[in-house]
Amino acid sequence: MGPFNTEEGLTVDTCTACRAAWFDRGELARMVGTREDLPALDAMNDFAMATSMPCLRCANTSLVEMPYHRGLPFKVATCPTCQGVLSSLVDLRTMRELAASERVARAAQHAQPQHFASSLSAPQTASLAGRTDASLDQIATRFSDLNRLTVKQRRSWLEALTGFEQPNTYTVIGNGLGAAFVVSEQTSGLGETLLRLFLGPWRPFTSFVEDTRRGTIAMKLYRPFRWFLPELEVRDADNNLLARIVRRWTWFTTRYEIFDAAGAQLGEIHGPFFRPWTFEVMVGGSRVALVQKKWSGLIKEALTDADNFEVTFDASAAPKWKPLALACAVMIDVAHFERSNK
After folding, report:
1. Which residues pair with 282 in a beta bridge?
2. What is the pTM of this model?
3. Is the pLDDT of residue 21 over 90?
């Protein structure tokens, strides 16, 4: 077996012939996006079988083979001493898809987010700001190689022909090369369908931002119901509040303010009066990102409200502004370019 460098920054031992991979304790969880290497260990212990395969790390220890999860056709082998795992690289995609679907199911059970806390002491505020900055920086590592985002909204011909709003879905292309993220509005049941039908762009919604390169949820976007001055909350995969984007009243221009979880202002979004398709993300008077609506083509523009946006970043911008700018693009699309169903 030889070393293999993964995009998560890990070096795992792999066999080039059979595509087997050895993961030391904690490495498989990082690759898949779970808390534990074997999240269904307790349930699968009843199906475990001893093997004659030796552990790659422990002397005189044989591996134990068991199903990775109930309902999946493949098995993994684990060492009872060091808790390393032997699996196939081919099965990693299935593991990631399962982990992502389980996170979606858990999030649906706790879909109502906590309200923004506005009565914190100074030490609590500083601590919260530090934690949210760390979370944003961690999310930003997923964007570290991306200098340009093309946000393309998907629209079905059924919506074009009937005018009936479907849940918003955006494909986010990184550096013009391929899909890096998918932003999907979560919907279930007749109630949410009716809200989308009657409230249109004023409806509340939750969207998941999935990292397609890792198969995990990068962050969540929550839009509470507001008749005026809409806002959008940016949350991590565990539903912790990271930032809020809030529109402010202006006569002729567009202006949003961006706050961290503790309520401190991080920056602003400015929409110049004579450039209604251009939005500048500003920090301390300097631009850190630019969000521009792009022409989608005559038929698409005439028949649907599907929009394309280009998001570019200043070279000196802090890493956290990449995920925040993507959230800004979604907010701008819903608030300014989505038609109401009247």
Report:
1. 268, 287
2. 0.61
3. no
Rounded Cα distance, 13 and 254, in Å: 53
Q: How far is CA 241 from the centre of its chain?
A: 14
Give dist(CA 86, CA 20) in Å, integer: 7
How big is the chain, counted in residues?
Answer: 342
> Token match 């030490």: residue?
123
Mean pLDDT of the chain: 80
Residue with tokens 């134990």: 64
Q: Which residues contact 172 (CB under 8 A, 6 or more apart)?
A: 149, 150, 151, 152, 179, 180, 181, 182, 183, 326
Nearest to 150 by CA among 105, 107, 180: 180
Q: Which domains does the chain have, with CATH numbers?
A: 2-109 (no CATH), 122-337 (2.40.160.200)
| Mean pLDDT of the 132-137 span | 82
pLDDT, tens only, 249-264 = 888 889 999 999 888 8
Rounded to whole angstroms, how far apart are CA atoms 311 and 175? 10
Q: What span, in angstroms and rounded, lies between the C-alpha atoms of 334 and 245?
A: 13
